[in-house]
């Protein structure tokens, strides 16, 4: 519940005016709400995807179990990370262009 409220509070820090920002935040909100529904309905989050392999000597080596809501949260976070990287690259490019522009005629006075 805290994560949902926190994300709602800081959502304007992300590119919510762009479709990709809306999709990323939507995935995160949806995943959080999905896990909350499980928590209230069953008392715990239902994890149903489990990957594992067998060891040569017996037993399993497994990846932690997760569910669709967890996947949505991870994809949303990764999307916001990519958006952030793209914004940084654009800002660096704009800054470099400003540094290499010749002064305008208005600056000569």
Whole-number total of structural domains: 1
Distance between the termini: 59 Å
Q: Residue share in helices? A: 55-70%
Derived from helix and strand composition plus strand pairing, the structural class reads mainly alpha
Rounded Rg: 22 Å
- Order of strands in the sheet with most strands: 1-2
How many β strands by DSSP?
2
Flag low-confidence runs.
Answer: none
**Helical segment count:** 3
Q: What is the chain-wise order of helices and strands?
A: HHEEH
Largest sheet, if any? Answer: 2 strands, antiparallel
Q: Oligomerization state of this entry?
A: single chain
Beta-strand percentage range: 5-15%
Mean pLDDT, all residues:
84
The geometry reads as: elongated
Describe this structure in words.
This protein is mainly alpha-helical and 109 residues long. The chain has one domain (15-98). Helix content is 60%, strand content 6%. It has helices at 2-10, 19-42, 68-99; strands at residues 52-54, 60-62. It has a two-stranded antiparallel ribbon with strand order 1-2. A hairpin with a 5-residue loop joins strand 1 and strand 2 (60-62). Helix 1 (2-10) runs antiparallel to helix 2 and helix 2 packs antiparallel against helix 3 (68-99). The longest helix is centred in the C-terminal third of the chain and has 32 residues, at 68-99. The chain is elongated and about 75 Å long.
């Amino acid at each position: 519940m805290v994560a949902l409220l926190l994300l709602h509070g800081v959502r304007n820090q992300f590119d919510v005016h762009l479709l990709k920002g809306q999709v990323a935040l939507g995935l995160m909100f949806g995943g959080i709400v999905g896990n909350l529904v499980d928590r209230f309905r069953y008392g715990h989050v239902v994890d149903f995807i489990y990957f594992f392999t067998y060891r040569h000597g017996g037993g399993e080596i497994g990846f932690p179990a997760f569910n669709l809501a967890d996947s949505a949260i991870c994809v949303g976070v990764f999307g916001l990370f990519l958006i952030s990287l793209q914004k940084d690259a654009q800002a660096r490019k704009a800054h470099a262009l400003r540094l290499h522009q010749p002064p305008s005629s208005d600056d000569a006075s």
